[in-house]
Amino acid sequence: MTFKHLFRLVFLIFLYGFSGNADSHVNRTYEKQSGLCIENGPRQGMQYVDSNGAEYNYRYNTITIWNDSTVAIQLEIGFSEMGRNLIDSIKSKIFLLPRHLTPNEQHFDTGGISEELKKFLDFEIDNHTHLSKVLNPGEKCVLTFGVLTDTKYPDPTTPYETELLTSREKTSAISLRLKINETLIIPCGKILCIQK
């Protein structure tokens, strides 16, 4: 590689780092704790019309969890009974999307929504999805949490940033909570270190 090519490569990398591509991370928040890195993606969404013609605001956040440690971790995601009771107390449905809909498979077939996502929202949304996964060192897991709200009611995610929060428990577990807004924070799982 000549000096000219090397200079161009370095210039392009520098330009990419300071270009508009950096703006794609503006709405993302990161949390790092004990070898665990969580990237909370921006809120996204679309309108959804069910089979009866009722219109909903469908909002979703894609969250990536990385295991930056040197040991495997057990990731358990799902809403506990207490979490489901909190969800039942509001006008929205809050859920974990099945992995086959995370994240690119959600849209855009017809009408801005994929057939698979429409089928899930029409018929399977009340089935409680649970994820149990071992993340080896350096491995990542992508999750998508959805919020479905009838347009007659206020959307609890507006104008807030939904994010996955962690807190250390007295044991070696890290508890996970989904923050929908300042007053609605729902327990949604835990992470355990796997001792070998």
Please tell me about this protein's structure.
The radius of gyration is 19 Å and the shape is globular. A five-stranded antiparallel sheet has the order 1-2-3-7-5, with no helix packed on it. It has a five-stranded antiparallel sheet with strand order 6-4-10-9-8. It is built from three helices and ten strands, in the order αββββαβαβββββ. It has one domain. By secondary structure, it is α+β, with helices and mostly antiparallel strands. About 10% of the residues have low confidence. Strand 9 and strand 10 form a beta hairpin.
Query: What's the helix count?
Result: 3
Strand order of the largest sheet: 1-2-3-7-5
How many structural domains?
1
The radius of gyration over CA amounts to 19 Å
The helix content is: 10-25%
Q: How far is it from the N-terminal to the C-terminal residue, by CA?
A: 46 Å
Low-confidence stretches: 9-30
The backbone outline, from C-alpha atoms, is globular
